[in-house]
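Continuing the series of single-chain predictions for the mutant panel. This is the parent chain; the variants come on the following pages.
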Amino acid sequence: MNELDYKSFYDKVGKTNGWDFSKLKVTLEGALWDFNEEIKKKSKTSDILLDIGTGGGENVLTIASSFLFLVGIDLSKGMIETAQTNLKKSCMSNVRFSQMSSDKLEFPAEFFDIVTCRHAPFSSIEIAKVLKKGGYFLTQQVGEEDKLNIKRAFNRGQLIEKNGGLLARYVRELKESGFSEIQHYEYDATDYYQRPEDLIFLLKHTPTIPNFGEGNHDFEILNDFIENNQTEKGIRTNSKRFLIIAKK
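Parent structure:
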């Protein structure tokens, strides 16, 4: 999916389903890092942070108290509306959310101490413009082989292409944009979804399986998948993630 496709998808789903992932019952085994903790390691309480693809803001709101000020942007109007609602509930005074494209960051040059991006597209050139010299960019992205057994069951799926291609492209683009210190890490962990409705929630709220539920046989395929992957811990699949930490 390109950025406009993502916007269309998330606007549509956000209006019909909402974005409360907090009730999702899923356990993760084998993750090698926690993205929020990695952000904190590279930041100070006096820092100003930009979060690209902030979604409903749930993640950044949990770490807002660790920063002087935090700005979250997302291309989707529906996502930002949800983020604004979550902000009111949180009572945080140092956070702002705005609808904006990651391809055109409308901020002063070298304004941010740290920039983050979780599971969303970004422009290395734009990040380099708004990040201070010596500042850090951290991104966690979904690898091509994420939810691989689900994609194979449906014979379609998000990023079902050569493994490692996205990571290599992002690293190359960051180097070309002037980032001098770039580290990257990967893990392939195991997800256990506790209930069928948790897995359905995932498939309806993310582009893992394009147009899930619109095909005549999608739920037949899903039922077979659940039967074949049911374990004592839950319905088994995988989470493929990579982390990039780049210093300007």
